[in-house]
Design goal:
499 residues; alpha/beta; Four Helix Bundle (Hemerythrin (Met), subunit A); 434 Repressor (Amino-terminal Domain); eight-stranded mixed sheet; two-stranded antiparallel sheet; disordered C terminus
Length: 499
C-alpha cells in the first residue's frame, strides 16, 4: 500500500538533503510537489489542500527545529500532518457498560464485509473476548452459509434464521445473552450500489439492536469512491468507524488518507490480505511511518509475538547466546516467518531497507524451495552439514525437486550464517563477562561516552534499539537460487522489547 506515494515523497526528500537552508520559495516548491504526489495517490482534493497549507505554515513558521537539516524538517512536519490526517491517536471500539457490546457491520457487496466480520471475531477472541457472529444478510445467496463456515474456522458461535434481517438481529442479541457472549457482530446485507432499500433496511436493523459501534467496511482499492460511499452511509445511518479492506493491493492509498478527514470517523481496523489472520488494528502513526519509508517495527514485533511461542523464543535466545545454529533450527524459524505473512510485507516493515530490496519481486515460493531442500536431508545432515558430500547433494536435490546448484547455494549461505552466529555468540559472551566484571568493581557498565538508554534518537522521534529486541533469532540471508538471483538476504527479525 502507498507504494506510489512513498516513492514520490522519497524522491522529494532526497533532493532536499543537499540544501543548506530552506527559503519560502523552496517551501512553496516542495509543497506543490507533495500536493501533486497526494493527488496522484487519489487523495481527496480538499484533504490534500488542507494538509499542504498546514505543512507550509509550519515549515516557514516557528515550529522548525534549528537542529534539523531542511530534509529532516520537512519529513518531520509531513510525518506529523500525515498522522493527523490518518486519525491522530489509535481509535478503539466503544464498549457497552452492560454486555453484550453490539457491532453492526455495513457496506457494499464485494467490500469483504462477511469475511471481515469473521476476522473481527477472531481478533476479539484473541483479546480474551467472547463474540457471537450473527448472519443478518439474507439478501445475498450463500451469505449465511459463508459466515457459518467462517465462524467454524475461527471457533466462534454463529446465529441466523430464515426470517427477516430485523428479526435475526433481535434474536441474535437474545442468543448472545443466553450463551453469555460479551460481543455481538451483526453482518448485514450489501448492495452493488447504494440505494434507498438498503439504507431503509440498515436503519431498521440499527434501531432494533441499538449498536454500540456501527462500522463501515470499505474497499481501499476503490479510491475516491470509497470516501463517497462512507459519506453516504454516514449521512444515512451514522457511523462510528471504518474497516479498510484490501490495503495490501492499494498502491495509491487515497482512501485511507481521505476518509477520516472527510467523514470525521476514524479507521479502526485494516484488512491486509485474504487470510483470516491478516487483520490488524489501524495505527495512524505506524501507517505514516510506512508511507515515509521508515518501516513499522512495532507491528512487526507484534506479529512475531503472535507467531513465536515461549519455547521457540527461549530456543532462539539460546541460539543467539551460544552462537550455535543448525539447519533444524533454521527450518523452524523459516516456518515461523512464513506464518507472519508474505515476505514482501515483512520486509516493508523493516526500517532503513534499501528501495531496491523493498521493490524487488520476492517470490514466497522460494522459501518453500528452501524448506524442501532441508526436509530432504537426514537428521544428521541437518545437524552437521559438513558431512554432505557430492552423492548426498545429488540425493537431496532429487528429493526436493531442485538442482545441486541450488543445494550448494543454500549450504554456502548457511555456512556464512553459522560463522556470523558464532562471532555474535563470542561477542555476547565477552560483553557479558565485561559487564559482570565492571559491576563487581562498581564501575561503568556502558561504554564511555554512551548512555544506557534503550532508545536511539532519530529525526522523527525515537524507535526501539534493534539491539535490544533480540528475543527471536533472525532469518538469515536468502539469496536467489540458481539463475534466479534474488535480492540479498534480510536480517534477523527483532523480538519483543524487554519488559
Amino acid at each position: 500500500m502507498f507504494d506510489t506515494l512513498s516513492d514520490r515523497l522519497e524522491g522529494i526528500f532526497t533532493r532536499l538533503r543537499g540544501r543548506g537552508r530552506l527559503s519560502e520559495k523552496d517551501v512553496d516548491q516542495v509543497a506543490r510537489e507533495i500536493r501533486q504526489a497526494l493527488l496522484e495517490a487519489d487523495v481527496n482534493v480538499k484533504v490534500a489542500r488542507s494538509l499542504i497549507e498546514r505543512v507550509k505554515t509550519r515549515a516557514v513558521g516557528a515550529d522548525v527545529h534549528t537542529a534539523l537539516n531542511p530534509a529532516q524538517q520537512i519529513v518531520k512536519i509531513v510525518n506529523d500532518e500525515l498522522i493527523a490526517v490518518l486519525g491522530g491517536e489509535t481509535a478503539k471500539l466503544r464498549v457497552s457498560s452492560k454486555p453484550p457490546t453490539v457491532i453492526l457491520l455495513a457496506g457494499l457487496q464485494g467490500s469483504g464485509k462477511t469475511t471481515h466480520a469473521a476476522k473481527l471475531a477472531r481478533h476479539l477472541k484473541q483479546q480474551g473476548r467472547h463474540p457471537l457472529l450473527v448472519g443478518a444478510d439474507l439478501q445475498r445467496l450463500a451469505a449465511v452459509d459463508q459466515l457459518r463456515t467462517l465462524a467454524e474456522r475461527v471457533d466462534v458461535p454463529f446465529f441466523s434464521e430464515p426470517t427477516d434481517p430485523v428479526s435475526v438481529a433481535r434474536q441474535g442479541l437474545e442468543e448472545a445473552a443466553r450463551l453469555g457472549r460479551d460481543y455481538v457482530i451483526v453482518d448485514t446485507a450489501g448492495r452493488i450500489q447504494i440505494d434507498t432499500e438498503l439504507m431503509h433496511e440498515l436503519t431498521q436493523v440499527r434501531d432494533a439492536v441499538q449498536p454500540d459501534n456501527t462500522l463501515l467496511v470499505i474497499d481501499a482499492m476503490t479510491g475516491q469512491e470509497a470516501v463517497n460511499v462512507a459519506v453516504a452511509f454516514h449521512d444515512a445511518i451514522g457511523l462510528d468507524g471504518v474497516i479498510l479492506t484490501k490495503i495490501e493491493g492499494d498502491a495509491r492509498g487515497g482512501a485511507a488518507l481521505s476518509v477520516k478527514e472527510v467523514v470525521g470517523r476514524p479507521i479502526l481496523f485494516a484488512g491486509t490480505g485474504e487470510k483470516l489472520d491478516e487483520f490488524e488494528v489501524f495505527h495512524p502513526d505506524r501507517m505514516a511511518g510506512r508511507i515515509l519509508g521508515m518501516g513499522d517495527m512495532l507491528t512487526l514485533i507484534e506479529k512475531a509475538e503472535q507467531t513465536f511461542d515461549d519455547d521457540q523464543k527461549q530456543r532462539a535466545e539460546e541460539i543467539m547466546r551460544e552462537g550455535e545454529l543448525t539447519l533444524e533450527d533454521f527450518l523452524e524459524q523459516l516456518r515461523q516467518v512464513k506464518k507472519m505473512g508474505p515476505l514482501q510485507n515483512v520486509i516493508g516493515m523493516l526500517p532503513g531497507m534499501p528501495k531496491e530490496i523493498k521493490d524487488a519481486d520476492i517470490d514466497d515460493r522460494e522459501l518453500g524451495r528452501v524448506e524442501a531442500i532441508i526436509c530432504s536431508m537426514t537428521p544428521a545432515e541437518r545437524v552437521t552439514p559438513s558431512i554432505i558430500n557430492g552423492s548426498r547433494r545429488g540425493r537431496i536435490a532429487a528429493g526436493s525437486g531442485t538442482t545441486t546448484v541450488e543445494v550448494n547455494n543454500l549450504l554456502k549461505q548457511f555456512a556464512q550464517m553459522q560463522q556470523m552466529m558464532k562471532q555474535m555468540g563470542v561477542m555476547g559472551r565477552v560483553m557479558q563477562k565485561k559487564a559482570k566484571k565492571n559491576k563487581k568493581k562498581g564501575g561503568r557498565v556502558t561504554a564511555k561516552g554512551t548512555k544506557p538508554a534503550t532508545t536511539r534518537p532519530g529525526g522523527l522521534g525515537t524507535m526501539p534499539d534493534l539491539g535490544d529486541l533480540g528475543d527471536f533469532g533472525g532469518l538469515g540471508g536468502l539469496g536467489g537460487f540458481g539463475d534466479r538471483g534474488g535480492p540479498g538476504g534480510i536480517g534477523g527479525i527483532g523480538g519483543s522489547p524487554r519488559r
